[in-house]
């Protein structure tokens, strides 16, 4: 039985063979497996690809033993911590490191010359008791693109594109970033409600950060940005204005599409310090699963407090939660 593979498969397979970075190979192998039609004619091919995937996974986990680790360094992947992984990218000197420096305890190098950041660096930012991971990255420009950036961007929950309002060529520099990412098959989008037609591409939700706001007093650059990135969410920031940095935290939270749900034991106050973090649209049942799998099967119903509800309203498993709801599970 013929395998009947789509033409894109062969293109991607060529890439797979040319690729030297095991993490990137692993990603492409996963794509190839997904693209493969699932029928008798591809049984052997599927098995082969699964074997390659498991070999690559081992190779990545035990770099010393299986060799081929030249590029599989810590830079290729940063373990997700907190409620979301947020990667800051942009042209040189835009202020990426300054933002990570101001918003987290990480101490990346900030410098008044471009190309100062050479390696990614992560730090934790707190917004209203929720912690996010921010990743500072080296710049993207015609002179510089670190290949590991593609993997980091694909992995992140949100991309923050840092736009330098003080630069002479703000829009051209950003155009280059978009073009470079497109070459790497990454498309920044205001939202990711659709899947790309071509499975080799990856759509990434992007928040624009119009930075160095006081260098654009007329607001001209900001409106040019809004025209260029129609429909994209935008937050305006300056390192010297704490209010704008708070707004940055809020914008990140809003664009991660998550909600906070607080839980309370019967007859006691809620624990506001340790919310359950869930995707927008989650239900009472999903909150219970997040707390404990067993618990999720045992509870009969829940009582809820929150905007637009009666205090202590009785709700069932499929009830959709909103940000800052308080839940009390009843057995
Ligand atoms: N006017 C102004 N300058 C800023 C602001 N934020 C950062 N800077 C300055 O911009 C310059 C570059 O800042 P960095 O944070 O190192 O920029 P970067 O994007 O990390 O630069 P690379 O790592 O080289 O890509 C430094 O001189 C900062 O002091 C701001 O809000 N306003
Ligand atoms: Mg930097």
Distance between the termini: 55 Å
CATH top level of the largest domain is Alpha Beta
Domain tally = 3
**What is the name of the CATH superfamily of the largest domain?**
P-loop containing nucleotide triphosphate hydrolases
Characterise the protein shown here.
The structure is a single chain. The longest helix is centred in the N-terminal third of the chain and has 19 residues, at 43-61. Strands 1, 2, 3, 4, 5, 6 and 7 form a 7-stranded mixed β-sheet that branches. The chain has a 5-stranded mixed β-sheet with strand order 9-8-12-10-11, sandwiched between helices. The model is unreliable at 65-73 (pLDDT under 50). By secondary structure, it is an alpha/beta fold. The chain folds into 3 domains: 7-66, no CATH class; 74-255, 3-Layer(aba) Sandwich (Rossmann fold); 258-330, Beta-grasp domain (Ubiquitin-like (UB roll)). Helix 1 runs antiparallel to helix 2 and helix 2 runs antiparallel to helix 3 (43-61). It has helices at 7-18, 22-35, 43-61, 63-66, 96-103, 148-155, 170-183, 220-228, 242-255, 284-291, 293-298, and strands spanning 85-89, 121-127, 130-136, 158-164, 186-189, 202-211, 234-237, 258-263, 276-279, 301-305, 313-315, 325-330. Residues 92-98, 110-112, 114-117, 139, 166, 211-212, 215, 238-239 line the site of guanosine-5'-triphosphate (GTP).
């Amino acid at each position: 039985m013929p395998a009947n593979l789509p033409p894109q498969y062969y293109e991607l397979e060529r890439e797979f063979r040319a690729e030297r970075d095991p993490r990137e190979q692993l990603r492409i192998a996963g794509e190839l497996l997904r693209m493969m039609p699932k029928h008798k004619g591809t049984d052997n091919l599927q098995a082969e690809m699964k074997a390659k995937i498991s070999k690559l996974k081992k190779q990545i986990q035990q770099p010393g033993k299986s060799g081929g680790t030249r590029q599989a360094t810590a830079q290729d992947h940063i373990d997700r911590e907190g409620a979301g992984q947020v990667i800051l990218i942009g042209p040189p000197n835009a202020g990426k490191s300054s933002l990570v420096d101001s918003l987290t305890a990480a101490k990346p190098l900030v410098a008044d010359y471009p190309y100062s950041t050479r390696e990614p660096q992560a730090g934790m930012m707190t917004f209203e008791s929720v912690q996010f991971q921010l990743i500072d990255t080296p710049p993207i420009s015609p002179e510089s693109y670190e290949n590991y950036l593609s993997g980091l961007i694909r992995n992140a929950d949100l991309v923050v594109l840092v736009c330098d309002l003080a630069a002479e060529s703000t829009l051209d520099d950003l155009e280059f970033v978009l073009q470079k990412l497109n070459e790497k098959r990454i498309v920044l989008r205001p939202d990711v409600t659709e899947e790309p037609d071509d499975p080799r591409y990856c759509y990434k939700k992007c928040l624009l950060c119009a930075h160095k706001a006081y260098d654009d007093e007329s607001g001209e650059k900001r409106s040019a940005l809004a025209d260029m990135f129609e429909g994209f969410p935008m937050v305006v920031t300056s390192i010297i204005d704490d209010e704008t940095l708070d707004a940055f935290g809020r914008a990140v939270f809003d664009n991660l599409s998550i909600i906070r749900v607080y839980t309370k034991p019967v007859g006691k106050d809620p624990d506001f310090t340790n919310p359950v973090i869930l995707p927008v649209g989650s239900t009472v049942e999903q909150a219970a699963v997040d707390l404990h799998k067993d618990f999720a099967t045992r509870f009969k119903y829940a009582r809820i407090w929150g905007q637009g509800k009666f205090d202590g309203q009785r709700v069932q498993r499929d009830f959709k939660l909103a940000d800052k709801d308080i839940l009390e599970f009843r057995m």
